[in-house]
Amino acid sequence: MLYRENGQFKTTYRADQQIFPILQDRIVIGLLLLFAFVAVPLLASDYLFRAILIPFLIISLAALGVNILVGYCGQISLGSGAFMAVGAYGAYNFFVRMPGLPLIPALILGGLCATFFGILFGLPSLRVKGLYLAVATLAAQFFSDWMFLRIKWFTNDSPSGSISVTGLQVFGLPIEGAHSKYWLCLSILVVIALLAKNLVRGAIGREWMAIRDMDVAAAVIGIRPMYAKLSAFAVSSFIIGMAGALWGFVHLGAWEPAAFSVDFSFRLLFMVIIGGLGSILGGFLGAAFITVLPIALSQALPALAGLAGIEISTAGVSHAELMIFGGLIVWFLIVEPHGLAKLWSTAKQKLRLWPFPH
Fold it and tell me: Short name of one Pfam family for this protein (predicted)?
């Protein structure tokens, strides 16, 4: 009976429309943020930061952007890797060609570059949808790969096509160690997740969901499909572009166009499907699942094979990972289309009534 809301009366509209209207939710979120900002840096090792936590935070940010476009607006996109690449290369060019530019404005400018790129390749959504739109966004992926490989200006005339950044600072503080990188990624993720949650709860979020459910009916009641679809592409591309800039600047440090391949786009889409379409929480759950599962499989499969007297190679573990991903996507689409977020929501509803049956 710890999750009951008896006695929690709402006396104002503001209290009734809170992001977390139940007191227990606010307490849990506050403790979770306190643990993430204070306890994790004290307890985690350098390997844990660089291999799991920092990639998880950045991928969660990218999955959040994909979920806005695919989950909330219903526009299928296979060009997320391209938007990340544009954000990374855009931020790099601003950072290198404007000496003294702080890191945060460079990341924002990279996100704006991805916004314009996303709107450009979002224009086909005004005429096509479904599989045809997916192919149109996939064209963005191939175009970005060609652009960053062939046009040397984007890589600052690097002969190999590989670029790197150094000397990162935020408010005069160097971003070099794992702890500072973790705090930077976590702070950006918290701010953007809060803004995105408020955005999808507002008028523009309701327009996106109306377009997703039935675009013809949405147009009949006065919603402008062009504005709704392109705004979804713009917001989604901005968030994904910032995630791409963080992935290049903070996680990789040096990268080339292959770092944002079409495989990355499919992984982000898988995260959203497994985590839950149309849910901010789904991006986090999907990113955690996809990030932790390969590490768990790489440790568990050889151990289980050893118990059975079978030797399994690294390639075999990689193939098993892909098969499990595919099986889970099919399972979620059939059994629970709304993903892990829906399972969590159902558990919360049961906790609100437990131990009573109704």
Answer: BPD_transp_2
